[in-house]
Amino acid sequence: MNQFTSKAWFKLIIGALALAALYYLQHVGYWVLIEQVLSDRRWSTQLGGVVINPYIVLRGLLIIIAIFWLTAVLIDLVSLRISRRTSINASTRNLLITLVQVLFYLVAGLVTLNMLQINLSALAVLGGAIGIGLGFGLQKIAANFISGIILLLEKSIRVGDLVELDSGLSGFVRQTHARYTLLEGFDGREVMVPNEDFIISRVTNLTFSDTKGRLSFKIGVSYNSDLEKVKSLLVEVVHNHPLALEEPAPAVYLTEFGDSAVVFLVQVWIRDIVTQRWAATNDLNFAIWQKLQENNVEIPFPQRVIHLKKDVD
User: Fold this and answer.
1) Alpha carbon of 166 to those of 119, 153, 187, 193, 254: distances in Å?
2) How many CA atoms lie within 13 A of 119 on its CB side?
3) How many CA within 13 A on the CB side of residue 216?
4) Most buried among 41, 96, 105, 176, by the most CB within 10 A?
5) Is the distance from CB of 261 to CB of 300 less than 8 angstroms?
6) What's the CA angle centered on 18, arms 12 and 21, to 5 degrees?
7) Rounded to two decimals, what is the model's pTM?
8) Can you say whether the dihedral through the CA atoms of 131, 132, 133, 136 is positive or negative?
9) Left if phi > 0, otherwise alpha if psi is -120 to 50, otherwise beta: which for 155?
10) pLDDT confidence band for 164 (50 / 70 / 90)
11) pLDDT digits (tens, 9 = 90+) for 257-298
């Protein structure tokens, strides 16, 4: 029995015991006695043409508790069914559970108001004023919630994806919620990003269609080097690496004549940019360094030449 099921069973048992206690009080006649005592005029007051007494308050509390208890049980059962649907990805399941909770509690609130015989039309003006105030105050929360629904329908961001935002933030999608998406960076830090940021700004999803990715290296060599030989050495290194894909094939280009070095660009495709990125980068850097050292190819560093002029009298 998992935790979700245990929670639902616990609520059912507590509710059953409460109903049994109320039935007992009704059956032996104690409930009628309670009603007579708490409805006594000495304990009653009038508010806006409505009589308020302890019995009415107690009855209202019991109705509220019963309705929201039943709502919580139904939410647990529906959420359990959704969480067991492995055909739906984790982010979609989380958002569906959130939508179920919002919908069920909204219906429960309306049913409670109706059973308490509260005139909803009387609350229309007050509700409209509160709605306008909340509309301004909760504008961002509403935008993030709607953005979360859009992400769910589009399936552009999923749990496990490696993404980069326009702000420079990058990481793995670990959880998606109604208001935010949780990103885990390469250093283990967890950042809660508002869902709206994934809609209104540019997002790079490195694993949207597949996990294949390209690594790029800039290698600078001395102007005294045999450039054709250097290129063949770099091609040999990348073609022999076990993580390099044959298609697309690795490539080496001479891209720049810099101030201190001739710069080559090395590009290698690997199968999984998520799990192989740093291992491939480390191996290739060491392999390139070793190959160039074995062939006496100099990797220069920036130098400055200073000419001192002596004043002549």
Assistant:
1) 50, 22, 19, 12, 30
2) 7
3) 6
4) 176
5) yes
6) 140
7) 0.50
8) positive
9) left
10) confident
11) 988 899 999 999 998 887 888 889 999 999 999 999 999 998
Which CA distances in Å does 161 have to 93, 214, 271, 292? 16, 16, 15, 36
Which are the contacts of 7, defined by CB distance < 8 A and separation ≥ 6? 76
Chain position carrying tokens 């001192």: 308
Cα 100 from Cα 113, distance rounded (Å): 20
pLDDT of residue 117: 66
Check residue 222 and report its DSSP letter.
-
* Share above pLDDT 90 across residues of the chain, in percent, rounded to a whole number: 16
Q: Are 220 and 262 in contact (CB under 8 A)?
A: yes
Q: Is 198 exposed, middle or buried (0-12, 13-18, 19+ CB in 10 A)?
A: buried
Task: Find the mean pLDDT for residues 148-158.
Answer: 79
CB of 51 within 8 A of CB of 61? no
Give the largest CA-CA distance in the chain: 125
Element of type H or E holding 27: helix 3-28
